[in-house]
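Let us work through a complete example step by step.
Step 1: write down the sequence.
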Amino acid sequence: MLILGLVIDALIRLIYKDNATPANYSKDIPGQSFINRLPTELGENLICFVMEDHYLLAYTNKGNHMILMRMKDALIELKNYNGMQVHRSYWIAIDAVANVKKQSRKTILTMKNGIEIPVSRKYLVAIKEAGLLGSL
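Step 2: predict the structure and record it as tokens.
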């Protein structure tokens, strides 16, 4: 009886282990745990996210989605993704920056989807190191 119980337990664990992992999940892909929070119809090309109260409004090339998540936790999940925080409330994917402009003392990033993201002075050095400022 004990052996039968162990066999059944092992089978159940094997079945549920395979179903617990999403089909598109891979630990090797940077930021995949964050991207898995988005609906699949939005794709995987993250452009930016904006913090709004306790939510993040994440933008991809196919739309946007509101996620209940702290900014701190999102930054941890995206630490290996090719992106960076550029303001207290904004994170961008570096490859999604279409234009950089200076307006007096302000720096504004225009993303591929047309959203304009302000850069705070705190993050200007990091933006410059990422090569986004160019000759500005």
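Step 3: interpret the result. Strands lie at 46-52, 55-60, 63-68, 83-87, 90-93, 97-103, 106-111, 116-119.
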